[in-house]
Amino acid sequence: MTSPLEQKKIRIAGPSIVTANRTWDGVVIYRTAQQGWSADLSDAAIVRTSDEARALLAESVADDVGAVGAYIAPVEINGGGQIKPGNLREHIRSEGVTIDLPVPA
Amino acid sequence: MYAYDELDRTLINERVSEFRDQVKRRLSGELTEDEFKMLRLQNGVYLQLHAYMFRVAIPYGTLSSKQLRRLAHVARRYDRGYGHFTTRQNIQFNWIKLAELPDALSDLAEVGIHAMQTSGNNTRNVTSDQWAGVAPDEVEDPRIWSELLRQYTTLHPEFSFLPRKFKFAITASKHDRAAIKVHDIGLRLHKNAQGETGFEVLVGGGLGRTPFIGKTIKPFVAGRDLLSYVEAILRVYNQYGRRDNIYKARIKILVHELGIEKFAKEVEDEWLQMGDSVLALDDAVVEEIRSRFTYPVYEKLPHMPEELKKAAHDPHFEAWRKNSVAPHKVPGYAIVTLSLKPVGGPPGDATADQMDAIAALADKYSFSEIRVGHEQNLALPHVARRDLPALWRELDKIGVATPNVNLVSDIIACPGLDYCSLANARSIPIAQELTRRFANHDTANLIGRLHINISGCINACGHHHVGHIGILGVEKNGEEFYQITIGGRADENAEVGTLIGPAVPYGEVADVVEDIVEAYLALRARPDELFIDTVKRLGVEPFRERVYATR
Amino acid sequence: MPLVKNGKISGDAFVHVADDAEIPDDGAILISSARFLDDPQRLSSRAGKTGVIWPNNRDVDDLVPYLDRLAVIGLVFPTFRDGRAYSQARLLRERHLYRGELRATGQVLRDQFVFMLRAGFDAFEVKKASDAEAFALTAKRYSVFYQPTGDGRITALHQRMQQRHSESAGQ
To answer: Which end of chain A offers a freer environment for a tag, N or C, measured as fewer CB atoms within 10 Å?
Structure first.
C-alpha cells in the first residue's frame, strides 16, 4: 500500500471509488453518484475507467469545504454485488484499526 | 519544572484565538484547504486515515501532574480515552475533530500546554534527555537551554516557512539519551577548558528517506552565542535549502551537497556579519530563565532505607527495581521509568485512567513531575528510594511496571498503517507479537539491552535506522513486507543500521527477529557482550546466514 | 488587488512596468530586478520614483549599492509557504538599514501579516479583499513576542528583565 497521497497519474486497474475525510470531523467518507458524500462504503459511486475516475475525482476535489484529501481507491465487488475495500488501507479506513483500542469503543 | 508566566500564557492564548479564527474561516470556506493545511500543521493537526491526529507539545519532555491530568481530560472529552507518546517527547491523539480543536487547545492552554509548531515546515519541539536535571553524569540542566531555544524558535517570523521541518535535540551527559546525532541541529552541552558552558553543535543529522549522522559544525559555541549561532544556521538553511523537491529539502541534504566545510563557512560568514548580536545571552538573561525552573527541595535520605531492605525479598519487586530504577544525582533518590510497553499492548500508549493515576503517583512520590522519553516510556524523576516498594505496587496495579525497559520487548514503534496515511504497512501488531514472543523476563534479561525500532514507512518516525534491530514496512504487490536492519544506534556512537537481506512478509517478521536473537546468543563472546557489540564485532554476515538459510 | 500601506487599504502610487514595456521618464514605477540591474545607474536616478521587484532566490547583496535611491523594494512570496523573503526582508532592514517601502508581493494572505510586519514589511499587495479589510485587526493578534527583530517590539525576555529591575528598584 504505497500511500495514495502520492498519486500523480490517474490510472485504475479495476472498479474504483473516490474517498476522502470529512472536513469538520475527519470521518472517512465516500463520493456518491448524487454529487454528495456518505460515510457508508455501500453508497459509493463506482467508476470503471480512468476517464470516469478522473471526472469523479475532479468533482470531489471541487467540494473543498466539505471534504479533504480526496483520492481514488480500489474496491472489490463481491458475488452479492456488495462493495468491499480493495486493499488493506481501505479496509482499515472502512472497518477501523486492526488492533484492540486501549479503551474499548 | 519551568513556570509559565503571564507573558507565556498570553502568547499561548493569542495563538489559540488565532487558530479558532482560522478553523472558523476554513469551515465557512473562506480559507481553502490549500491555504489552511500549513496553518493547521503549525498547530499540530494532521489528517490521518480515520480522522485528524492532534500532536501536543511536551517541551523537552517535562510535564507537571496538573498538565498530565489535563491531557487525560482531552483524551476523554475530545478523543477515545487514550493518547500516544511519541519519539519526540510529544503526545498524539488520534480521533480528534477539527471543529473541536480550538476548545481542546483552550483547555490545554489553561495549564500552559500548547501545540505550536509540532508540525509544519518550522522548528519543532526541542527535545532533551528525559533524565535532565537529575542524571548523575550531567554537566548542568540542559532544559534551561531547551527553554531558551523553545522561546527563541516559537513563532519566529523569519523561520516559520522553512524548506522543511527542523528538529533540535540537546544532551548534557556523556551518554546521549536525546539522540542528538540524528537531529537537524544536535547540541552537546559541555564546559571548555576555561570552565565556560557551551555547546558542540552538530548539523545535518536525520532519518527518513536518506539517513545521515550529524556532523560537527563547531566544536564549541559559548552559551552566550547559542541563539545567534542557531540564527545563522537557520538563515542559511532558509535561503539555500532546496524547495523544489520535498524529499531533498531537509538541512541534511544541503549539508551533504555543500559539504560540511563549505556549509560551516556559509554559517560562519553569516554569523560574523551579525556582529555583536541582540541575541547574545548574557548571564542575566540565562539566570532569568534558570530562576523560573523550580527544583524539588530534596530531603537528606539514606541510600539503603529499611523499606528497600525489606522489599528485597520479593523477587518481582527486585526484578522491577533492577530493570526500571536508575541512579539519581541526589543520594537517597532514584529515577523511575514507567514502561508503556506491556506484553501484547501497543507501544507508547496510555489511557486517560492511567494518566490520571500516574499524575496522582507523581504528586505523592515525585514532586508532581513526570517525564516523557523518546523511547515512548514515561519517568518519575524524583522518587525517594524508601518509596520504591510502595510506588512499585501502585505502578503494577495500573500496568506500567513491566520490567522490560531497554530490553527486547521495549519496542519503539510508529503508529503505522493502522492510523497513519503515510504508512505502507502496519507496525503496532508486529510490536505486539514481538512482546508476546519475548514475554518471559528471564529470557529478556538473558538477551540484555536490545532496542527494536519499527517504522511503517520510510519517513522513519519509529527511528528504525538507529535501532539495534530496525524494521521498516514496505509494500510489495499490495502485501505488507518488512526490511530488517541490524547494528543501528542512536546514542553518542550513533550509526545507521545495515540491511540483512530481502524484505520478509508480515507473518515472518517475529520469526526473523527470533532467529536474529538466537544467532546473537550463540555468537556472543560473553554473556555481557551486548547485541549491538556482537554485531559490531562480527558484522552482518553471520546474522544474514542464519536468517536466510531457510528463506 | 488591494494594497495595504501603513495599516490600511490605500491607492498604489506605483505602476508595475512589464519587461517589454517602455519605461516612462517620470512617474513612480516598479520594474523587475533583471531590468533594473541592466542599467541601475540610469534607472535609480530617473525623475520619478523607482522600485524593484526582487526575486526570492537571489541574494539581496546585489541590490545593496542602490538602496538609498530606491523608493520601493518588492519581495516575493511565490506561495505563502516559501519563506525566503522573510530573511531577505530582515537583512534589508536590519543589516543594510534600508528605509524605503518594503512591499510583500505574491501570495500574501492574512495569516502571515504579523510575521511580515515583524520581518520589516510595511506594504502588502494582499491577495483577497477580505484579508486587506481585516489587516488592522489581524496586526493586533499578538502582543507577546519571544524573539527580537528590527520592528522594535520588546521581547518577552526583556520585558521580564525590566519588570525585575523595577521590582528590585521599588524595594
So the answer is: C
